[in-house]
Design a protein that fits this description.
The complex is a heterodimer of chains A (about 270) and B (about 290). In chain A, about 75% of the residues lie in helices and about 0% in strands. Chain A has 14 helices and no strands. Chain A has helices spanning about 1-30, 35-40, 55-60, 65-95, 100-110, 115-130, 135-140, 150-160, 165-170, 175-185, 190-205, 210-215, 220-230, 235-270. Chain A is globular. Chain B has 2 domains: about 10-60, no CATH class; about 65-290, MetI-like (MetI-like fold), CATH 1.10.3720.10. In chain B, strands 1-2 form a two-stranded antiparallel ribbon. The two termini of chain B are about 35 Å apart. Classes of the chains: A mainly alpha (about 270), B mainly alpha (about 290). At the A-B interface, helix 1, helix 4, helix 5, helix 6 and helix 9 of A face helix 2, helix 4, helix 5, helix 6 and helix 8 of B.
């Protein structure tokens, strides 16, 4: 009996905390379907009293959000794919090959994760200007190609793959390129999905770097677009809610689809690390 | 035996290894080591790209940093912000993870997935959502609690408001980390405690908590590193105001570098923060090491 009461109490507390956690998202989505007069009304209801989709249409008429969305999707996918590939291959070399300087190199990769963004961003900005990469997606993609976090996690993950499988393939005459692409890459699926989602999120939410290196409005990414939109239409709340919802929902969908692999992946890297 | 597990390297292994190592070294040299060098040199110069100045100043930028009132205000704000947010992050994370882990709760992965949602959402966007929630005209927070507070415009509540938002966004990460830690605990230690007649609290206090210390350390260190670098929520929600009450250390760097274009001063400030980050990380390791 006592056990039952504490079980109910604990579940109720967890559900309440869950409501607090999701409430801002629900409020945002509901508000994005309300008229401005209803958003500003003295008496508030969570659900829209008159359900409208005009906010989404208006938002896109004033500011090409679908364009920003497509730009962000392109850049984010490009960075994510590249980082997944480079992290996996670097992780493979650092965990399965023995060579001089390996530990030094790995220690260096670890150290890169401790450097705050603010130390390198000014010089990177001046370098991009000198390379003539301003206003081009090269400036967004190339400096993000390798990730210390990704390499570290993939090294930890691939180290757990059994050497015997690689040896068996070698005996069958497979070369290392074949082994990496056909054996290691598919087997590292769980590690890959966790760094892929992290990397997707980081690239998707990055604000300062695209703000600095992209000047043409049509090329701009969603996070910067959202801030510009807020600056210009700070009183059209309905459209602001719609724009914010557009930039959050894709990430939430990806997360909800992949959350199992994702949580398993990050948790595993922390326990081992 | 030794030879069998480390066979002679094949040609393709050498080629693959060389390509990967060289690519890594080139990348990190160009986009990390050289920039650090440029920033370090720049921190001793009056460096403004708009006016094209690059004049040697010696230590003046560093002296200016330490004699600036705003710097100390922002350090105090960052300290308050980090301590409060980390305490809540660790406390909520550990408490919730332990609750989910206990046999009293059924839908474990459901709760875990829900609490982790804010962690994966873009900061710029959720900072806007919270800015609207705090808005006295349209916001839902005053409405729900029947308050009349202009959260982000009041010097007494602005930093608190940003901290609440950050706790909401980040506690789920600690939940997931502590759950991973709890599930990897050695079951024999917990069994032994049970056999010895320890009650639930004693088991938690004297067995589970000490065994989770590496995880706590991990969460605290990663939190310190990320809060010293936090600026997006400030940029979106308060821009440092009202007055200077929500200036965080990294927000000054953003402001000096990309609003005022004082690259030299901003670089000096960056190195100060870099050293502080390194010292805190080292301290956390030492504190945990000396207790074991």
């Amino acid at each position: 009996m006592k056990r039952k009461i504490s079980s109910i109490a604990l579940n109720v507390i967890l559900i309440l905390l869950g409501v607090v956690t999701v409430y801002p998202f629900i409020w945002m989505v509901c508000s994005s379907f309300k008229q401005n007069s209803e958003i500003m009304a003295l008496e508030q209801h969570l659900l829209p009293q008159t359900f409208i989709i005009d906010n989404y249409i208006n938002m896109n008429n004033r500011f090409n959000f679908l364009r920003f969305f497509a730009n962000s999707l392109f850049v984010t996918l490009a960075i994510t794919l590249l980082v997944v590939y480079t992290s996996t291959i670097c992780g493979f070399v650092l965990s399965k090959y023995k060579f001089k300087g390996r530990n030094l190199l790995f220690g260096f990769v670890l150290a890169t994760m401790m450097i705050p963004w603010c130390v390198t961003i000014i010089p990177k900005y001046t370098m991009i200007q000198e390379f003539g990469w301003m206003d081009s997606y090269k400036a967004l993609i190339i400096p993000a190609m390798f990730s210390g976090f990704g390499i570290f996690n993939m090294k930890q993950h691939i180290a757990t793959l059994p050497d015997e499988i690689l040896e068996a393939a070698r005996i069958d005459g497979a070369d290392e390129f074949y082994i990496f692409h056909r054996i290691v890459l598919p087997m590292a699926k769980n590690g890959i999905s966790s760094i892929a989602i992290f990397q997707f999120l980081w690239a998707w939410e990055d604000y300062l770097w695209p703000y600095l290196v992209i000047n043409t409005q049509e090329k701009q990414l969603l996070a910067v677009g959202l801030k510009m939109f807020n600056g210009q239409y700070s009183t059209d709340y309905g459209a602001l809610f719609a724009a914010t919802a557009i930039s959050i929902i894709p990430v939430l969908i990806i997360y909800l689809v992949f959350q199992k692999q994702f949580i398993a992946g990050i948790a595993a890297s922390a326990v081992k690390g | 035996m030794f030879k069998k597990s480390h066979p002679l390297q094949s040609k393709s292994e050498i080629i693959l290894r060389n390509i990967v190592v060289i690519a890594m070294v080139i990348f990190f040299t160009v986009f990390l080591i050289i920039p650090i060098g440029i920033a370090f040199a720049g921190s001793f110069h009056e460096w403004n790209p708009l006016s094209g100045t690059y004049n040697f100043l010696g230590l003046k930028n560093y002296i200016d940093v330490f004699s600036s009132g705003l710097f100390w205000t922002s350090m105090l704000n960052t300290l308050i912000f980090s301590v409060v947010v980390i305490i809540f992050r660790v406390g909520l994370g550990l408490g919730i993870a332990y609750a989910i882990y206990s046999s009293l709760v059924k839908y474990k992965s459901f709760f875990r997935a829900v609490y982790y949602m804010p962690v994966v959402t873009p900061m710029v966007a959720v900072a806007f959502v919270w800015k609207f929630m705090y808005n006295p005209q349209i916001g839902t927070i005053n409405q729900i609690f029947g308050l009349d507070i202009n959260w982000l415009m009041n010097p007494k509540t602005a930093l608190l408001a940003v901290m609440i938002m950050t706790i909401w966004k980040d506690f789920g990460y600690a939940v997931v980390m502590y759950m991973a830690g709890l599930y990897s605990l050695p079951t024999d230690a917990l069994e032994a405690a049970k056999v010895d007649g320890a009650n639930a609290w004693q088991t938690f206090r004297y067995i589970t908590l000490p065994l989770l210390k590496p995880m706590t350390l991990f969460v605290v260190i990663t939190s310190i590193i990320s809060y010293i670098q936090a600026y997006v929520q400030i940029l979106i929600m308060t821009e440092g105001g009202p007055g200077t009450t929500t200036y965080l250390a990294s927000y000054i760097i953003y402001d000096e570098a990309f609003v005022k274009y004082n690259f030299g001063y901003a670089s000096a400030l960056s190195f100060v923060l870099f050293v502080i980050t390194a010292v805190f990380t080292w301290l956390s390791f030492r504190v945990s090491g000396s207790q074991e």
